[in-house]
Write a structure and sequence with these properties.
This protein is an alpha/beta fold. It has a single domain (5-180), classed as 2-enoyl-CoA Hydratase, Chain A, domain 1 (Alpha-Beta Complex). It is 48% helix and 17% strand. The protein has 9 helices and 10 strands. It has a 6-stranded mixed sheet with strand order 1-2-3-5-7-10, with helices on both faces. A 4-stranded mixed sheet has the order 4-6-8-9. Helix 1 links the parallel strand 2 and strand 3 (47-51). Helix 1 (28-44) packs parallel to helix 3 (70-88), helix 3 (70-88) runs antiparallel to helix 9 and helix 5 (138-147) packs antiparallel against helix 9 (199-225). InterPro entries: ClpP/crotonase-like_dom_sf, Enoyl-CoA_hydra/iso.
């Protein structure tokens, strides 16, 4: 797709890889590459496996862009929220093969997928926005409410609690934990299973199940567009 997002098509699924430096930061270029990848996967009617680099799925938004100005932060966060909304209503299953750390927008991508596989190890998963001084945006709250366990919602969003992989399953960020060497093979196996789903039935049922949350996320994005992203010193 571009230099930071790679797309590889297979018989029943497509592998989309984020490759953007040490932190695998979510930049404008990454979001553009992910959207183009989803365009192709939708046209080819492929299950999507979204993955990162060894040890890191993504540490979140590109901090250089976020710190540039309130306007630049707002633009990037809005594009990220729109990507999550698209993923949540994507007509084919999206599996995340989470290679390791998934922080901030990296964790939100987990919450935007249909099935999430993490790896064993000393890895961190969670929403650290409040910890680093960012008041959580409306869409972030709405996305978190749509997928996180009620017990873990405040711990994750308001308190910025970060979890190791097994606890991340309990919280609702992940569905399964495997060893690093089993990650991609497990994702491929699940993708092949999901490929047997009836395309139209899956797409229509997903929208029914998520209808309430999709509407709330869409309204939350509109709210964020009318306000500034607040990053406290």
């Amino acid at each position: 797709m571009n230099s930071v997002v790679q797309y590889t098509s297979h018989d029943q699924y497509a592998i989309v890889s984020i490759v953007n430096g040490k932190a695998n930061a979510i930049s404008h270029q990454v979001i553009e590459g992910l959207n183009k990848s989803l365009d192709i996967a939708e046209k080819e009617q492929k299950v999507v496996i979204l993955t990162g680099q060894p040890g890191i799925f993504s540490a979140g938004f590109d901090l250089k862009v976020m710190k540039e100005s309130p306007e630049s932060a707002k633009e990037l966060v809005t594009k990220g929220s729109e990507l999550s909304l698209r993923m949540l209503r994507f007509p084919r299953p999206i599996i995340v093969a989470c290679n390791g750390h998934a922080i901030a927008k990296g964790a939100f991508l987990l919450l935007s997928a249909d099935y999430r596989i993490g790896v064993e190890g000393d890895y961190k998963v969670g929403l650290n926005e409040v910890q680093i001084g960012m008041t959580m945006h409306h869409a972030g709250v709405a996305i978190a409410k749509s997928r996180l366990s009620e017990v873990y919602l405040n711990r994750s969003v308001s308190n910025s609690e970060i979890f190791e992989p097994k606890a991340a399953v309990q919280a609702g960020f992940l569905d399964l934990i495997v060893s690093e060497k089993e990650l991609l093979a497990t994702a491929k196996s699940i993708a092949e299973s999901f490929a047997k789903l009836h395309l139209k039935a899956h797409a229509e049922t997903k929208l029914k199940v998520r209808k309430k949350h999709l509407l709330k996320i869409k309204k939350a994005i509109a709210k964020d567009l009318k306000s500034n992203i607040v990053i406290n010193p």
